[in-house]
Amino acid sequence: MGEDKYLNELKSTTEYTGVHPQKFALWLGMASMTMFFAALTSAMILKKGDFQSWENFRLPTVFMYGTAAIVLVSVLMHAALVAYRKASFSTFRALLTAGFLMAIVFLYCQYIGWSAMNAIGKSITGNISGQFVFLISYLHGFHIMIGLIVTLFFLFFAFRDRKNPVYEMNNTVNPKRLLHMELLVSFWHFIDIVWIYLYLFFYFNYQ
Amino acid sequence: MHTATVDHGAHSAHGHDDHAHHESSWLETYVFCQDHKTIAKQFLITGMFWGVVGGLLSVLFRLQLGWPNETFPVLETFLGKWAEGGKISNEFYLSLVTMHGTILVFFVLTGGLSGTFSNLLIPYQIGARDMASGFMNMLSYWFFFTASVIMFASFFVQTGAASGGWTAYPPLNGMRLEAVNKGSMLGFDLWALSMTLFVVSSLLGSLNYVATIMNLRTKGMNMLRLPLTIWAFLFTAVLGILSFPALLAGVSLLEFDRLLGTSFYLNQIVINGNLLDYKGGSPVLFQHLFWFLGHPEVYIIILPAMGIVSEVLSTHARKPIFGYRAMVVSMMAIVIISFLVWAHHMFVTGLNPNLAAVFVLFTLLIAVPSAIKVFNWIGTIWKGSIRLTTPMLFAIGFVSMFISGGLTGLMLGNSSIDIQLHDTYFVVAHFHIVMGVAGFFGMFAGVYHWFPRMYGRYMNETLGYIHFYITLIGGYAIFFPMHFMTGLPRRYYSFSNFDTFSSFDSLVVFISVAAIIVFLAQILFIVNFFYSIFKGRKLEGEYNNPWGGNTLEWTAPVARLHGNWPGDIPAVHRWPYDYSVNGREFTPQTTPLAPGEEEHK
Questions:
Q1: Can you state the angle between helices B283-317 and B324-338, rounded to 10 degrees?
Q2: Which CATH architecture has domain B4-586?
Q3: Which of 2.60.40.10, 3.40.640.10, 3.40.50.2000, 1.20.120.80 is the CATH number of A37-46+57-205?
Q4: Distance between CA B579 and CA B391 in Å, rounded?
Q5: Which residues from chain A sit within 8 angstroms of residue B568, using beta carbons?
Q6: Which of A112, A206, B297, B524 sits between 20 and 30 A of B474, alpha carbons compared?
Q7: Angle at the Cα of B143 from the Cα atoms of B152 and B242, rounded to 5 degrees
Q8: What is the pTM of this model?
Q9: How far is CA A173 from CA B178, B230, B461, B598, in A?
Q10: How far apart are CA B599 and CA B593, in angstroms?
Q11: Min Cα–Cα distance to chain A from B575, Å
Q12: Is B264 on the interface with A (CB under 8 A)?
């Protein structure tokens, strides 16, 4: 896929840094989301220091299965991007769908995990140690929901025009669509890495 | 229907003539517009609306404080049950101070100030067609607008607007308990929802500002040729990106406590003799999260004003900015240190004194870059050909206010003094002068200075002078006496039941009278602003540079043009502060260096 006309003009008329402005904006957004989860986990560390009120427990195993699912989401999304770049659009559609479904599997694992927490007496209104798991995983789940909604749009457009003869050409020569795919996949990688960090954080703090 | 030619699809660096134009509807042009100039005006007008509302609230609570035993029957006509018999109720009083703080800090001095000038000036001054993402920019405004509507709606719910302070501390705001605090009911939920949307708006805007500045500068516009306004907006955006999420996290925990029954901030609460089912939480945790944003927020307000003032002082004194690099490094230092001082708001929470000493150290350290900036502003106008235009007056007023308020910051930064002065009118005086009045002065300087750029007309100078002198004298009249009210606790509904405070009675009345006069003086500004949009003196010619400025915005045509410049974007050849050098009064950044001429280092 050749250089975008837009990018060429950008380079010739500006002090171009080599990064597309929208990609740069997404990176900044990731920095912001990192601060959000850093604030939440810092709050948890602060509370854990209060030994009088903190009750330790073992994190339900199903959260580990969820973590495996989210790693798969990243792999599938990345593979979808690679297929898109190679203009293998039927593979792209299959992989994007699989990634979407795997993200739903992740959310389902989280749901089972929350139920398992309740089963061991760690409800959302129980001890503060359990409350933090609910809070942080809910808020992470909210980010996953946003990712799912945006991916749904991509799926809609991927399937809507698949029988249109100009569909392939449109996708092949349209770098704007590639950029959007790259942004989507970057978001998924980021939010997946956030969960891996959160899982390890919980795992080592609830030993 | 009125139509205009606007291209929304292709933005940024295209040659303007390449644009594929299409006819846009009135709605696309003036409402859901993606053009940075229109969005700047939307932020400004919304900010002005909030300025009036926030100011009116202060007039209402100053009436109560100044004349606590008097009745004002007209108030009942407008406020109904909140002012029965013409006397403001104590619950409504608490809502007034809470909403005054929220509105002024976030909706006027953050959204109104940074939203307006970042949008207006970033693409113009770096030489870009528009923001990196016009769509995100539009979303940023409409999130702000929705947040505004929700915050305003909270005044009209049955239990009243939020009343637990603009800092939203738990436990007062951590439970929905009407018996404790009516404002903790729906009013606070709306407050929290509105603030969440506000944070989203701020983040969308900030991401765009940084991406635009870093990626879309015109040829020749390297970082050391950026005007100080742009540096200020860049640092402000970075601060917002890194600090607002902490507030969002704090408010998320708060809403979990309120709506889902968790106890992150609550522990052993007793109401009417009954122990509530909360245990293990800590309200101090919220203070840590809140002030991790709250203190950088002070700089989110003041940095854009500093940038504006630097630009205005240099332009109207016809002198190069003094110590450009020192100004940039100072701002960078302020940004870094501002993340390390949050607990100086928490010296009375039982903070470990050794830890407090660290926060004292960093708090006092931040005075160094602040003082560098003050010295450089004075150095800039020293022996300059000063033109006392309205924007220049407000810029000088800013410096005056920043010095006055900054000095008391040194006192309050010291924990041993702060513990004595905490929650007294001394603190009210400090932060109102250093970030409230100073922030407004920066904003006024910017509006008067760039009004010709926005509307192609001048504002009335005579009205501007009157506005300035009343606001300057009135601002000091309100807040200077408060320095002597060190024993008087803030947020009290009335002091008439305490004999010990009666010595302050006449001073409190004086302050209330001054506050009302200053509020009325702002009507002059609003009349001047709207009158001048339609009837102000027009700029002459197709291109006009009313103040003789060097920056790129003055090279764009007066007419509203999407893409800012017809044809190519001008390239930049020099820094923006070549005033009164080489025999020229001013030298625009687009002027190539003459043979043998060296660029300012």
A1: 170
A2: Up-down Bundle (1.20)
A3: 1.20.120.80
A4: 18
A5: 13
A6: B297
A7: 110
A8: 0.92
A9: 61, 36, 56, 46
A10: 7
A11: 15
A12: yes
List the 492-511 stretch of B: residues with Cβ below 8 A of A: none
- Joined together, the tokens standing for residue B364 give 């006092």
Distance of CA B100 to the CA centre of its chain: 13
Rounded CA-CA distance B506/B66 in Å is 8
- pLDDT tens-digit map of B396-447: 999 999 999 999 999 999 999 999 999 999 999 999 999 999 999 999 999 9
Give domain limits for chain A: 37-46+57-205
CB contact under 8 A, B241 and A32: yes
- Is the Cβ–Cβ distance between A100 and A46 less than 8 Å? no
How many whole angstroms separate alpha carbon A19 and alpha carbon A17? 6
Q: Give the tens place of pLDDT for each residue, B18-45.
A: 444 556 788 877 888 999 999 999 999 9
> Among A11, A15, A142, which would you mutate to test the B interface (most chain B Cβ atoms within 10 Å of its Cβ)?
A15
Q: Does A53 touch chain B (CB under 8 A)?
A: yes
Q: Is B353 on the interface with A (CB under 8 A)?
A: no
Burial category of B193 from C-beta neighbours within 10 Å (exposed 0-12, middle 13-18, buried 19 and up): middle
Q: How far is A127 from chain B, CA to nearest CA, in Å?
A: 7
Cα-flanking dihedrals φ and ψ of residue A61, to 5°?
A: -60, -30
Give the closest-approach CA distance of B250 to chain A in angstroms.
8
Considering CB atoms only, which of A6, A25, A43 is closest to B132?
A25
Please choose, from the candidates B510, B486, B501, B493, the residue with its C-alpha nearest in 3D space to the C-alpha of residue B426. Answer: B486
